[in-house]
Amino acid sequence: MLFVTTELFPWVKQGGLGDVSDALPKALRFIGLDVRLLLPAYPALQTVFEDARPVAKVPTLPGEASATVRGGRTPAQVPLYLLDAPQWFDRPGGIYDEHGDSALRWGALCRAAAAFARRGAKDGWRPQVVHAHDWQTGLLPAYLRYAGAETPPSVFTIHNLSYQGLYPPDVLPRLDLPPQSFSMHGLEFHGQLSFMKAGLYYSHKITTVSPTYAREIQTPQHGAGLEGLLHGRRRDLTGILNGVDDELWNPRTNPAVSVRYGPDSLGRKQENQPVLCRELGLEENGGPLFCVISRLVEQKGLDLLMEALPHWVDGGGRLAVLGTGDPQLEQGFTQAAGRWPGRVAVRLSYDEPMAVRLLAGSDGIFVPSRREPCGLTQLYGLAFGTLPLVRCTGGLADTVTGATPKTLANDTATGFVFTPPTAQALCAAMGEALDLWHHHPASWRQVQLRAMAQHFDWNAAAMGYEAVYQAALG
Ligand code: ADP
């Protein structure tokens, strides 16, 4: 199986895709599949895998020099192929920085990957299935489909439907795709070329990263204009939850946790809070301390949190925000920290050890997303006994059970949930959290223990993907 992706933790990571590209191939190999990665030879990967040896020559775009595929292995012994096409990938800066030629750049990756999948490596290895991820690899299923017989089937995974890769149609001839592909039954989307739609239309099977998101994207509210296509292909569409690396996201072992703890030593969790409060300039006593660890963007619903914040602070709550993004949200949270010194703290940065200290020292974590394909921070919150307060959408709906009289009575509650994307609904969930924390400490502890008992296992996810690959072959 050839796993074609644009990110790989820890060397090139922009979001959840980097984590998935690291963890899922390892888990698939663990259950016995011969999975191999293919990525562009970005400078960061060239340096790490300088020993990788040429295994194939492949075309990129018509009229261009062909590229060399080099083969190596990751430290976890996953075979890794690097597409060495310096004209497209040997560039400084971020991997998604715009240089005005992104359609051709990712098109070149897809065309080369399709050729490699068909011809295979020098040692005779050829994939039975090709697995592509998010819009940058969306043309890969299209190239495979138009390549004729002897071509492996493709699986396409949506990690976030909000980013689609839309370009004017005049790039089409340079991409060497047949003119008939530019149609409603193809990769055309309202007069533009859509990489995402190409992936969805031409792949044999489609997956996304949670069962609820798989249903939601078939509706106009979440489908970003592709709901009709997705609904039409619903029998080929599967939602498979991402896993969490238990070695990394574990309060018993993570080196960034000051006072390590587990379910059987939960009392020690509290010792992390004063340390965190001193670091952030927060009052050490008061009501519950909740954190946010997030990109500060519209998708994450943090404007709702800003609107509901007076209610939280009035109820005795404290808040610590870690994130960067939208200047308006950055400014809004900074102003809130000025308005409620000692009660609200903000750090506008990307800081992984800080994220771990927040998880260890906070009582809860807010994830009020408008849309959330899977979401990782609520899963970290569960693992750390840091109760997630989430909106009921996508992967959040699949992983957090809200505290209600019933779920508290039958010991299934793992956090707090609200549904309408409004500040009012969020305030109501905040009220539930404040009440439980202030008045029912034994119940709070019970919810923490239930949360920490949840496991999101990459091996379970790998078995889900294996079934999809089998179906694609069938
Ligand atoms: P998305 O991929 O939409 O950004 P996810 O919840 O799936 O959201 O993944 C976000 C990842 O990035 C998580 O691992 C989270 O801990 C991390 N993260 C986000 N913002 C920050 C930050 N400011 N500092 C450290 N880690 C962050």
Characterization of this structure:
Helices cover 39% and strands 17% of the residues. Helix 1 (16-30) crosses helix 19 (458-473) and helix 4 packs across helix 5 (139-146). Strands 3-4-5-2-1-6-7-11-12 form a nine-stranded mixed beta sheet, with helices on both faces. A six-stranded parallel beta sheet has the order 15-14-13-16-17-18, sandwiched between helices. A three-stranded antiparallel beta sheet has the order 8-10-9. Strand 9 (188-189) and strand 10 form a beta hairpin. With 474 residues, the chain is α/β, with parallel strands linked by helices. It is elongated and about 70 Å long. The protein starts with a strand and ends with a helix. Bound molecules: adenosine-5'-diphosphate. The site of adenosine-5'-diphosphate has 16 residues, from strand 13, strand 14 and helix 13. Adenosine-5'-diphosphate binds at residues 15-16, 293-295, 322-324, 350-352, 355, 374-377.
Write a concise keyword list for the protein shown above.
474 residues, 19 helices, 39% helix, 17% strand, elongated, binds adenosine-5'-diphosphate
Please state the average pLDDT score. Answer: 97
Strand order of the largest sheet: 3-4-5-2-1-6-7-11-12
The share of residues in helices is 25-40%
> Rough shape?
elongated
- Beta fraction: 15-25%
Q: Which compounds are bound in this model?
A: adenosine-5'-diphosphate
Distance from first to last alpha carbon: 15 Å
Biggest sheet: strands, sense, closure? 9 strands, mixed
Structural class: alpha/beta
Radius of gyration: 23 Å
Total helical elements: 19
Number of beta-strand segments: 18
Low-confidence blocks of residues: none
